[in-house]
């Protein structure tokens, strides 16, 4: 298909995002003096902003590409949960898969900005695993979404306790039952629990920590040896490793492709991984070749790194670059 046809295909897709959602809050103001109570700046408050973060930022990237998104997660039953659900409703993210818990708090990361510089971050969060009852409710909510039709499941792990080993293994089993491809943006805690997923996307740091193995990425034999070890442990159909300035690497049973990074003016790498897994998942759902998945996702990650803050991918800009680089879809 042509790039334009691929991007039209994105608009037909329904994607389930499963993982740790959070609210990113920003308190902004001006700093003109130091407090007499302690050697800290006084911020004269001027504005407060709340945005969706964590796994919900993956949803925002998917929406930006035209896909329909359902979110499955566990949050608190508190005021911050109301904020979370309000923000999801505004963005048209289906939240019927959200489980409320009276024993957990909704994750909020509040950044205090003074004179356009971050001075402090306050995290309200609970990182212990969800309870067995909450696991069951979450798995049920995933199956409810699958029954309605779904083209891909994204596991988005921020180590906040939602993606337990039981949730991971049972949702992978459900995905096979419903014939839905799965993609993973992992963290260390349950790194090797994602056995049998379709596409597994660690970055270099996660690959080294997950295997407890040190290597130099520029040593091709050592690097590919680590990827082969990971393949033997989780049996994913595709292993997609992001390597910052070294580009990305895609391995399947029959191919190995190194995709170089494009020269860019990097402003902020925050949220790039969310963009990469979003684009890769939609490309996977569209059934384009693995190398093309890697090339397009690589472009997308680079584009968002040119912008300050956590931003969703611009669909028009990405399409332009895919056409410019003559990527075969």
Q: What does this entry look like structurally?
A:
This protein has helices spanning 3-10, 55-64, 79-91, 132-148, 165-177, 204-211, 220-234, 272-285, 290-305, 315-324; strands spanning 14-19, 21-34, 41-54, 68-76, 94-101, 108-114, 117-124, 152-156, 182-185, 199-200, 238-242, 248-251, 256-259. The mean pLDDT is 92. The longest helix is centred in the middle third of the chain and has 17 residues, at 132-148. The strands form two sheets. Strands 5-4-1-8-9-10-11-12-13 form a nine-stranded mixed β-sheet, sandwiched between helices. It has a four-stranded mixed β-sheet with strand order 3-2-6-7. The protein has a single domain, classed as UDP-N-acetylmuramoyl-L-alanine:D-glutamate ligase (3-Layer(aba) Sandwich). A hairpin with a 5-residue loop joins strand 11 (238-242) and strand 12 (248-251). The protein has 329 residues and is an alpha/beta fold. The protein starts with a helix and ends in a 5-residue tail after the last helix. The chain contains ten helices and 13 strands.
Task: Please give a quick description of this structure.
Helix content is 38%, strand content 27%. It has 329 residues and is α/β, with parallel strands linked by helices. It has a single domain (3-22, 53-106, 126-324), classed as UDP-N-acetylmuramoyl-L-alanine:D-glutamate ligase (3-Layer(aba) Sandwich), CATH 3.40.1190.20.
């Amino acid at each position: 298909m042509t790039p334009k046809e691929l991007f039209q295909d994105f608009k037909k897709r329904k994607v389930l995002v499963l993982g740790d959602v959070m609210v990113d809050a920003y308190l902004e103001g001006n700093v003109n003096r130091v407090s007499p109570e302690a050697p800290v700046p006084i911020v004269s408050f001027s504005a407060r902003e709340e945005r969706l973060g964590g796994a919900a930022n993956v949803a925002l990237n998917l929406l930006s590409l035209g896909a329909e998104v359902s979110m499955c997660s566990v949050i608190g039953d508190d005021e911050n949960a109301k904020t979370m659900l309000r923000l999801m409703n505004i963005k048209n993210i289906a939240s019927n898969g959200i489980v409320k818990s009276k024993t957990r708090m909704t994750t909020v990361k509040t950044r205090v900005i003074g004179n356009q510089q971050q001075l402090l971050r306050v995290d309200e969060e609970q990182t212990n695993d969800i309870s067995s009852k909450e696991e069951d409710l979450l798995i049920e909510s995933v199956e409810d979404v699958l029954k309605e039709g779904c083209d891909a499941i994204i596991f988005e792990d921020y180590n906040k306790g939602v993606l337990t080993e039981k949730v991971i293994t049972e949702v992978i089993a459900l995905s096979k039952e419903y014939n839905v491809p799965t993609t993973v943006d992992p963290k260390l805690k349950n790194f090797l629990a994602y056995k049998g997923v379709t596409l597994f996307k660690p970055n270099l740091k996660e690959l080294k920590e997950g295997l407890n193995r040190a290597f130099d990425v520029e040593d091709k034999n050592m690097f590919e040896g680590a990827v082969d070890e990971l393949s033997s442990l989780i049996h994913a159909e595709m292993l997609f490793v992001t390597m910052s300035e070294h580009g990305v690497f895609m391995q399947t049973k029959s191919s190995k492709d190194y995709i170089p990074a494009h020269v860019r003016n990097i402003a902020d790498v925050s949220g790039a991984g969310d963009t990469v897994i979003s684009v890769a998942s939609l490309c996977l759902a569209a059934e384009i070749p693995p190398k093309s998945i890697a090339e397009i996702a690589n472009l997308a990650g680079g584009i968002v790194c040119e912008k300050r803050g956590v931003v969703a991918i611009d669909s028009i800009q990405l399409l332009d670059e895919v056409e410019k680089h003559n990527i075969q879809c």
